[in-house]
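JOB MANIFEST
job_type = single_chain_structure
chain_count = 1
residues = 151
[input]
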Amino acid sequence: MTLVVPFDGSELAEAALVRGAEFGTVFDEGVVAVTVIPERNTNYARERGWIGQEESFDIDAIVSTLRDRVAERCPDAEFEHVVVDRHAPSGTIARAIRSLARNRDASMVFVGSDNAGHFVSSVSTVGGNVASDDAYDVVIVRTPISAKRTE
């Protein structure tokens, strides 16, 4: 069994990765962080902070940066990335994550999302779509690590 964490580099994705690692230690399960990257979609990459305003899209650099960020937070986690079409239709990213979770025999998926937890049945979010699969349990992480440190 495996614990899967969709990872886009956001604060909530990092928090979900940390939670996944904590559960992985307790349950003695491996953790896989997965990033889905729309091919050559510069706007998508900029919106997520993967590249700067003046940088061109370089998938190798993006993957390397995200892999390093995962290793910083969870050194024992595996990192995988999936490339989808540049103009992938709605739901493609969630389908890629669900497919990887099923292929890895995930027991749990940790989703960092500030809106997936408000109404899990919402189909407008990746978190909501990932949560709709009943092949695994879903943990929704809504509190960034930085907020925990200030309490």
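[summary]
The beta strands are 2-6, 30-38, 78-84, 106-112, 137-141.
The chain has one domain: 2-150.
exit_status = 0
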